[in-house]
Design goal:
By secondary structure, this protein is an alpha+beta fold. It has helices at residues 53-61, 71-76, 90-101, 120-132, 145-153, 217-235, 256-262, 274-287, 419-422; strands spanning 4-10, 14-21, 26-29, 39-40, 43-46, 49-52, 66-68, 80-83, 86-89, 108-115, 140-144, 164-170, 174-183, 194-204, 240-246, 267-270, 295-296, 304-312, 315-322, 333-339, 344-351, 358-363, 375-385, 388-395, 408-414.
Length: 426
């Protein structure tokens, strides 16, 4: 492969980087020290040298430089910070952190960021940061932890997600439970399989204070009892094939009784690099343009698919120009099409939540008549919001034979959006 394939886990405390290894044929995770993959989210400066992670924190501790932490939240809030007497935008320091953390990779082919929670602002911020690190915009993708869990599971043995697969995330205060499951959608969607990850339960556990910062063996038994009850509630009336435990809350073995419930009839795994590996698997799929396999959906993804009829190898078929599972704010596109001698362009919109297909037509009245396949148009897709797609078609002419004209036509397509539709899927 030409270039590195990177999965980048980024949260408020640290980052973690996994990269695809051709030798192992799977992701490996960059170690900071032996069996430690986490790089503290801190950036520092000593004279003219930028440093990150533990090195930055050491500079601050021994007063040989300065370091800034909490970069992620400061960047999201558009804050400015002072470092070594100079004022910086926090987003610039976060970009510097990412740039330095990736400097061991000479060329990045695909970069996928994964974050605990995702919205449009976070996506745009991280795509901009990825570009500052030298990665092309079209080769950067941003997803949340749930989608990372899904993509990680898709590359595990099928028996591990034959039924539902569970993930428990535990920090020092709270436990959250997630389930990967298959969705049943409307009639007539061919062979496509759709999957999602639901947050099914969460609990603040004051008993976890007996686990951190120093394990209190006697009091930790109370935390074990609470977690065991939590697990039993999550698993009630569910068929679960496998369980994954992630987060710093599971680092000390304080939950032996809970582990018996977790492992009862299913396989359980413990680790802290699942999210970065899941992001790396996403990067791998995107780098090879792999389209087959289950499609991940959540409340941020589109439930509608927009198609144009295209001829490939002499066969006409409806080709998605906006696919199910795309986020509306990432669906803008521009491409060229060649037409036969047509009077209109027909567009099909198919929803996962209904059986009726929406058919839209764009009139080509005013476009000069030309012989077959010399009608060359530029098509542009622009989403105004999650329910409104504007399509524009412009005449590009055909080389020296047919000069371009001022023909341009627009069509607004109204979609169902995501929120209401997604929650109607079973």
């Amino acid at each position: 492969m030409d270039g590195d394939i990177i999965g980048y886990d980024l949260n408020e405390k640290y980052c973690q980087i996994s990269f695809y290894s051709e030798k192992q044929q799977e992701p490996e995770t960059m170690e900071t020290t032996h069996d430690n993959y986490q790089i503290p989210l801190a950036v520092g400066k000593k004279e003219e040298t930028w440093v990150i992670g533990n090195e930055a924190k050491r500079l601050d501790a021994v007063r040989k430089g300065e370091a800034i932490e909490d970069l992620y939240q400061k960047a999201l809030h558009g804050e400015k910070v002072v470092l070594c007497g100079e004022t910086y935008e926090a987003i610039r320091l976060l970009a510097k952190f990412v740039e330095v953390s990736l400097q061991s990779f000479s060329k990045i082919r695909q970069l996928v960021f994964t974050v605990p929670e995702l919205n449009m602002d976070i996506s745009r911020m991280l795509k901009g940061i990825g570009q500052r690190a030298g990665v092309s915009k079209q080769n950067i993708y941003v997803q949340d932890y749930k989608e990372s869990f899904c993509n990680y599971m898709l590359y595990q043995p099928k028996e591990l997600w034959q039924y539902e697969a569970a993930l428990f995330h535990c920090d020092r205060h709270e436990v959250k439970a997630f389930m990967l499951r298959k969705l049943r959608t409307g009639f007539g969607k061919g062979t496509d399989t759709f999957v999602t990850v639901d947050e099914v339960a969460s609990a603040k556990m004051k008993e976890l204070s007996s686990v951190y910062p120093v394990l209190n063996v006697d009091r930790a038994k109370d935390a074990d009892v609470c977690f065991k009850q939590f697990v039993q509630g999550v698993f009630a009336k569910k068929l679960v094939s496998s369980v994954f435990l992630v987060g710093e809350g599971f680092e000390n073995n304080w939950y032996p009784q809970s582990l018996k419930v977790l492992c009862n009839g299913r396989r359980a795994f413990l680790g802290n690099n699942l999210y970065s590996k899941g992001a790396c698997y996403t990067a791998y799929r995107k780098s090879l343009a792999i389209e087959e396999g289950p499609i991940y959906l959540d409340e941020t993804k589109m439930m509608d698919q927009i198609c144009l009829k295209m001829r490939t190898h002499g066969v006409d078929k409806w080709h998605p120009i906006v696919s199910w599972g795309t986020r509306w704010y990432e669906a803008d596109a521009q491409f060229e099409i060649l037409l036969e001698n047509a009077d209109a362009i027909e567009i099909h919109v198919e929803s996962l939540t209904g059986e009726k297909m929406q058919v839209e037509k764009v009139s080509l009245d005013g476009l000069p008549k030309r012989t077959d396949y010399t009608l060359r148009l530029q098509a542009e897709i622009l989403f105004l919001d999650e329910k409104t797609c504007r399509m524009t078609f412009k005449d590009l002419g055909f080389g020296e034979f047919f000069p371009a004209t001022d023909f341009c036509v627009e069509k607004e397509i109204h979609l169902g959006g995501s929120n209401g539709q997604y929650h109607s899927l079973s």
